[in-house]
Amino acid sequence: MPKIIVATTKQRLTAEAASWIDLALFDGALAIDATVGNGYDTQFLAHKVGSKGKVLGFDVQKAALAGARELLKFVGSLDRVSLIHDSHARLDDYLPAQAEINGAMFNLGYLPRGNRQIITKAETTVAALRLVLEHLAQHGRVTLLVYRGHPGGAEEYAAVRTFLEQLPDNLWHPEELIGAADSPSAPRLFRIRRK
């Protein structure tokens, strides 16, 4: 069981996730946005994978996908993104055969300015994370920004952390980043890479 390294950062956790995942992406990479939401991570990933790359973006809310589609169309990146109206737990149904994922981002919780009753769930998040790790390229990276302050958030955080603690220590390097203003309801960022 790997020991999860815990560190504090002064940088915003969203910026920390982007700068860390950036190191795994290149023109032609395959990236996953497991939770499209407003589309900002999708846009970032689409820019980083370049014109030869591909992003698969998942969301269960049509409104989120519609908003992301408009954003991607506006910045000229829609051609390298597949927006998928489905659970991230069904990732395997959409991955090309023998695909290797270079980077994946999860931004858990609910859609900002959306219905706060529709949230990511521990069981589907862990299932999706398991699939991403099965297909992760040798130098691939994964980030999970877990919001703990809403109903269901603390449980999802605990389930993700438990899953990461059970990964084979000789294969995986999980880290947990805490923001400078940490509290029991503050978000946490997990970063995972192969050893």
Structural features, described:
The protein is of the alpha/beta class and 195 residues long. It has a single domain (5-194), classed as 3-Layer(aba) Sandwich (Rossmann fold). The protein contains five helices and eight strands. Strands 1-7-8-6-5-2-3-4 form an eight-stranded mixed beta sheet, sandwiched between helices. Helix 4 runs parallel beside helix 5.
Radius of gyration: 15 Å
- Tally of helical runs: 5
> If classified by CATH, what would the architecture be?
3-Layer(aba) Sandwich
Which fold name fills CATH's third level, the topology?
A: Rossmann fold
| Total E-strand runs | 8
Search tags:
Rossmann fold, 8-stranded mixed sheet, 5 helices, 8 strands, globular
Q: Topology of this protein?
A:
Layout: E1 5-9, H1 13-22, E2 30-33, H2 40-49, E3 54-59, H3 62-75, E4 81-85, E5 101-107, H4 122-134, E6 136-146, H5 153-165, E7 172-179, E8 188-194
Parallel strand pairs: 1-7, 2-3, 2-5, 3-4, 5-6
Antiparallel strand pairs: 6-8, 7-8
Can you give me a brief rundown of this structure?
Helix 4 (122-134) links the parallel strand 5 (101-107) and strand 6 (136-146). It contains 5 helices and 8 strands.
